[in-house]
C-alpha cells in the first residue's frame, strides 16, 4: 500500500466540494494512510461530523478550545504529528487566512503552528479564483512553499456556471499527496549546505528610463531556490527584476544588470553549489545616456554594445571560490545535447540543464519545462513536467552529488 503508515491531516473547509472529501478520505485510507480530520464551522454546513467520523473511524476535530472533550489532543500535536496536511476543499477565504497567518479557529491555528508540508486543493467559483486578490494569495502561498492540486476546469455546482475552480477529483488529490510525500527532496537533504542561485532576466539600461531585457520569468530559478531551502540549505538567491514574490526562507538579493548580478553572486560565495538559472543579457549598452534620450524628427539613435561578463564562466573558473558543483542552464532551439556539451567545456561548469525554447514550447514564462541534464559523461532526459518538479528533481540530484560533509 503506497501510503502505508503515512499520517495525513485533512482539513475540510466550507464549500460544496466538501462532499468529495468523504471519498478522498476513503481513497487515502484504502492506500494505508492514517487520516485525521479537522472540519471548519462552514464545512459542517455542507457535510456532518458524523459522516466524516463514519469514514475515518474517529471523530473529526472541530473546536480550537475543546477542553471538555476527552479526545482533545491539542492543536500543537495536531499540527506536528502528520506527514502532510491537505486542505480539501480550500476556499478562497481559507487561503486568504493562511496568507495572513490568522488563527481564529482550529483549522487555521493548526496550519499556523505546523512545520509540515501543506497541500491545498482549492474549490471556488471561477470569478473568485480569477480575482486579483486570490491570484496574489496563490502566488504568496507558493512562495511560502505551499503546493496546489487543481483546481480543475468544468461545470460548477451553481447551474450554468463554468470555468476554472472545481476541486480536483479525489484520485488526483491522492496522486498530488503521494508526489508531495515521495518526490520532493527530504527536508534535510541539503542540511549544512550553502547554495547560490541566479534567477530572472537582467536589465541593461539605454538611458535613465529605457532598457534592454528578455522574457525570463524567474519561475525556474525561484522554484530551485525555494526547493533548496525546503531541503534545509542556506540559500542566497540573486534575482533580476521579476514579478514573483521573494521565496520564504531564502536570502534574496535584487539586482538589475549583469554586472550587479556578478558582483552579488561573487559576494555570496563561498558555497557548496551554484545554480545559474538567470537569463543574463549578453550585451549591455556601451553608450548609455546619462539623460533621457530625446526624440527628434528624422533622427534615430545609434546604440553601441559591450559584452557583459559571463557570470557562469567567471565563477566556474574562480581560482579559490569555485563551488564544488557549478550548474548552468542552456536555452537552445536546435542540437540541444551537442550544444550543451560544447557549453560545458566553454563555461567550465559541471552540469548543463538544457531546455528547448524553440517556438511552441512553454519554457519562457510558462509553468512547464522539459530538461536534459548534461554532464561530460552522461545525459539524463526528463519528461515534460512542472518547473516545481524539475526543481525537486534537480535538488535531489544536487544533494546526492554533494553527499554528506561540506
Ligand atoms: O551562453 P548562454 O547564455 O547560452 O549560457 C547560459 C548559461 O550561462 C546560463 O546558466 C546563464 O545563467 C549563464 N550566463 C551567465 N552570464 C552570462 C550569460 C549566461 O551566467 N553573461
Query: For the report, how would you describe the main beta sheet?
Result: 8 strands, mixed
CATH class of the largest domain, anyone? Alpha Beta
Strand content: 15-25%
Ligand set? cytidine-5'-monophosphate
CATH topology assignment of the largest domain: Rossmann fold
The CATH superfamily name of the largest domain is CoaB-like
Helix content: 25-40%
CATH architecture descriptor text of the largest domain:
3-Layer(aba) Sandwich
Low-pLDDT residue spans = none
The gross shape turns out to be globular
Question: Span between N and C termini?
Answer: 37 Å
Mean pLDDT rating: 92
Number of helical stretches of at least 4 residues: 14
Structure overview:
The structure is a single chain. The protein is globular, with a radius of gyration of 24 Å. It is an alpha/beta fold and 406 residues long. Helix 1 runs parallel beside helix 3, helix 1 (18-30) crosses helix 9 and helix 10 (219-230) packs across helix 14. It contains 14 helices and 21 strands. The protein has an eight-stranded mixed sheet with strand order 12-11-8-13-16-17-19-20, sandwiched between helices. A five-stranded parallel sheet has the order 2-1-3-4-5, sandwiched between helices. A hairpin with a 6-residue loop joins strand 6 (152-155) and strand 7. The protein has helices spanning 18-30, 43-46, 49-56, 75-80, 92-99, 106-113, 126-130, 132-143, 170-182, 219-230, 258-268, 311-316, 336-347, 387-402, and strands at residues 7-12, 34-39, 84-90, 117-122, 147-148, 152-155, 162-166, 194-199, 204-205, 211-212, 234-239, 251-254, 273-276, 283-285, 305-307, 325-332, 351-356, 368-369, 371-374, 379-381, 385-386. The protein folds into two domains: 7-183, 3-Layer(aba) Sandwich (Rossmann fold), CATH 3.40.50; 194-402, CoaB-like (Rossmann fold), CATH 3.40.50. The structure holds cytidine-5'-monophosphate. Cytidine-5'-monophosphate binds at residues 198, 258, 276, 278, 280, 282, 308, 310-312, 328-330. The site of cytidine-5'-monophosphate (C5P) has 13 residues, from helix 12 and strand 16.
Amino acid at each position: 500500500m503506497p501510503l502505508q503508515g503515512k499520517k495525513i491531516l485533512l482539513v475540510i473547509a466550507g464549500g460544496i466540494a466538501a462532499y468529495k472529501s468523504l471519498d478522498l478520505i476513503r481513497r487515502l485510507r484504502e492506500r494505508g494512510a492514517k487520516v485525521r480530520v479537522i472540519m471548519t464551522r462552514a464545512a459542517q454546513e455542507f457535510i456532518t461530523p458524523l459522516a466524516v467520523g463514519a469514514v475515518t473511524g474517529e471523530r473529526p476535530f472541530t473546536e480550537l478550545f475543546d477542553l471538555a472533550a476527552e479526545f482533545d489532543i491539542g492543536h500543537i500535536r495536531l499540527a506536528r504529528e502528520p506527514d502532510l496536511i491537505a486542505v480539501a476543499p480550500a476556499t478562497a477565504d481559507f487561503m486568504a487566512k493562511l496568507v495572513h497567518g490568522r488563527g481564529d479557529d482550529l483549522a487555521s491555528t493548526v496550519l499556523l503552528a505546523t512545520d509540515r508540508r501543506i497541500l491545498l486543493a482549492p474549490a471556488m467559483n471561477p470569478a473568485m479564483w480569477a480575482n486579483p486578490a486570490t491570484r496574489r494569495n496563490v502566488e504568496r502561498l507558493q512562495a511560502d512553499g505551499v503546493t496546489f492540486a487543481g483546481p480543475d476546469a468544468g461545470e460548477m455546482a451553481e447551474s450554468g456556471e463554468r470555468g476554472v475552480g472545481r476541486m480536483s477529483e479525489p484520485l488526483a488529490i491522492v496522486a498530488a499527496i503521494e508526489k508531495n510525500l515521495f518526490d520532493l527532496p527530504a527536508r534535510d537533504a541539503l542540511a549544512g549546505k550553502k547554495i547560490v542561485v541566479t534567477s530572472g532576466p537582467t536589465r541593461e539600461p539605454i538611458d535613465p528610463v529605457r532598457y534592454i531585457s528578455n522574457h525570463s520569468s524567474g519561475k525556474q530559478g525561484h522554484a530551485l531556490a525555494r526547493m533548496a531551502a525546503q531541503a534545509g540549505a542556506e540559500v542566497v538567491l540573486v534575482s533580476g527584476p521579476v514579478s514573483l514574490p521573494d521565496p520564504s526562507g531564502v536570502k534574496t538579493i535584487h539586482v538589475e544588470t549583469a554586472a550587479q548580478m556578478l558582483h552579488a553572486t561573487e559576494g555570496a560565495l563561498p558555497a557548496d553549489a551554484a545554480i545559474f538559472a538567470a537569463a543574463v543579457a549578453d550585451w549591455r549598452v556601451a553608450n548609455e545616456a546619462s539623460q533621457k534620450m530625446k526624440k527628434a524628427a528624422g533622427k534615430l539613435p545609434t546604440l553601441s554594445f559591450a559584452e557583459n561578463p559571463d557570470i557562469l564562466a567567471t565563477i566556474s573558473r574562480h581560482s579559490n571560490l569555485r563551488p564544488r558543483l557549478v550548474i548552468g542552464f542552456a536555452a537552445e532551439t536546435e542540437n540541444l545535447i551537442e550544444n550543451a556539451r560544447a557549453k560545458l567545456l566553454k563555461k567550465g561548469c559541471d552540469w548543463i540543464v538544457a531546455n528547448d525554447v524553440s517556438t511552441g514550447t512553454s519554457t519562457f514564462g510558462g509553468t512547464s519545462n522539459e530538461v536534459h541534464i548534461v554532464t561530460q559523461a552522461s545525459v539524463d532526459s526528463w519528461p515534460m513536467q512542472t518547473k516545481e518538479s524539475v526543481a525537486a528533481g534537480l535538488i535531489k540530484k544536487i544533494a546526492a552529488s554533494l553527499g554528506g560533509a561540506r
